[in-house]
Amino acid sequence: MSPMDRFLTLPDAAALADLRTYLSRADRIDRASARMIAGGGVLAVYTAVLHPGGLLDETPTVLGLRTVRIRVDQVLDVVVPIASLVARLDAAIPDPEDDTVLIGIPAEVATVTWAGVAPPRAGWQPVDSTVAGSLAEIAKAGIVEVAELLPADAGEAVVRRVRAEVWGRAMPDLDHVPAGAAFAAHSLGFLGEVEEEIPVYETGPWTRLSAARGHVLVKRRGWSLQQS
Prior knowledge:
Number of strands: 12
Number of domains: 2
Strand order of the largest sheet: 5-2-3-4-12-11-10-7
Structural class: alpha+beta
Helix content: 25-40%
CATH topology of the largest domain: DNA Polymerase III, Chain A, domain 2
Radius of gyration: 18 Å
Oligomer: single chain
CATH architecture of the largest domain: Roll
Shape: globular
Largest sheet: 8 strands, antiparallel
Order of helices and strands: EHEEEEHEEHHEEHEEE
Distance between the termini: 20 Å
Number of helices: 5
């Protein structure tokens, strides 16, 4: 895709609505950017739910991921403002002949820290599983705990410390996965019925929870990053 051809083709209005819902939820969590990687007929949209603000920040890196089909010849890898992307989705109109939807891509922003390296697409190995109900309970309990621990006039440093403490804590049934993964799955609307089984995969420094509605990726600290 050339710099002048900054468009992607979604299959239908349902895909458009699904992507807009996901991005709107992500924007409420972190009003920042999304990374869009398109290729092979698939668009992967990554958003940050949690990420460290510096070397001494112990907040885990937790990303959300939704994928949607696109034209196989469309290739793209950009970081764009979520709000601007949502505005492009709002302005998109389905083609009356085949129901496809052409969406414009906003101007890129300076690469943010968490978007520096994309999680690998291959090499994932199943290591565990959990259920949606358990993740929802952990997320809701953590949200309450964060609210109780934060004073009304908390500064950014205090907010980051509390969030790192609560969301960096290992989950009871997945002792190698931080509670922030449950927060991401719940906040992004990825959790379905309480009994839905959610497999857990790993590759290198990455862990992935794959629900039917979307994926949560966690990068463990202290590893060298692996390129996809």
